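**User:** Here is a favour to ask of a fellow structure person. Please take any protein you like and set down a full record of it. No explanation is needed for now; the record alone will do.

**Assistant:**
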Amino acid sequence: MGRIIPMPAEWDERLDRWFASAPFPAEAVILPGNDDAVWWLAARGHPAVATFEAVRDLTVKYRLYQQCLEAGLPAPRTWLAEPGTVLPAGPFPLVIKPQSRVGGRSWVRGRLVRSPAELEEGLAWFRREVTHAPRFLAEDPMLAHPIIQEYIRRPGNEVYHLTGYRSRDGDSVFAAHRKLLQYPRRFGNAACLESDGVDCELAAGLGRLLSRVGYHGIFEAEFVEANGRRMLIDLNLRPYNGLTLEVRRGYNLPWFAFLEAAGESSRLAAELAAARASNPPPLAWCDNLRFWSLLAGQTVSGGFSPREAATWAGWWRGHRHVMVDLNFARGDQRAGFAAAGMFFANAIRRPRSFLGAYVRRGLDR
């Protein structure tokens, strides 16, 4: 049985002191759980993550766009919105996004704008409301400026995800799933997913990108499709929402990270080869707490028609026998009940955030 070693809540100099003095067991391996942790470890040269340059170039969206151009990986056209630069004249709509969630003091994912006036007003709002902690800005000043990105119109709301692991030696494995529904509806986290086949051409392009910057570790790349072409819109370098779907299908990404951090390179290579050769079963994944909250909230607000709500409920019933739940696992319900308690406590403490994520229709911001 492991033990929990409490850490400071803020990413400041207290964390440096804690990290140097915390009583980690000799066999401990660090698995960073969010963007701030990956950045913090990379900036200090910790072997659990890739180099700071690799993490920065894949985490900061405009840098990621530039790397995509060099690697030949399709991505929506993107502009860096520095003060004084000429703003794009369209075509509208466009999306304003923060460069990264690293050091972010707001959870805004993006804002859709439909005219030059909306673009100017949206940028002013972003610069006021979406800020980053000074220590992260000191490590990369580009974080201070939002980006403007081409908005990809697509037939549905699905997002294609390529996930996997790349070792220091350049060995890799890829898996894939589709995000079907998210909260908030326009820009958000997955409420439900389905496994999918790996797009080999896209995987080759993503492999070139990761190789180009020298990245190793867990990754999750998000692609949207337009006119039969998938384009990269985001890249996560850490355990992500939906990771349990890949684990249940035989792609044990946290275990791969452990083996690499522990110096078990031969064993890691064997595990990656076995994962590549496997024939995993198709599965579905659902964050049931948020799925049903979104279904109820959107039905009440009119975001879903009764027919749409019935369709999503039917999807859940049709997949329940092959479904991985984010929080509840057979034989151990403790994590699920703890997650449910936190979920409802946050809904009471932050009602505006709850309503915005699950009830409000057509969120642009």
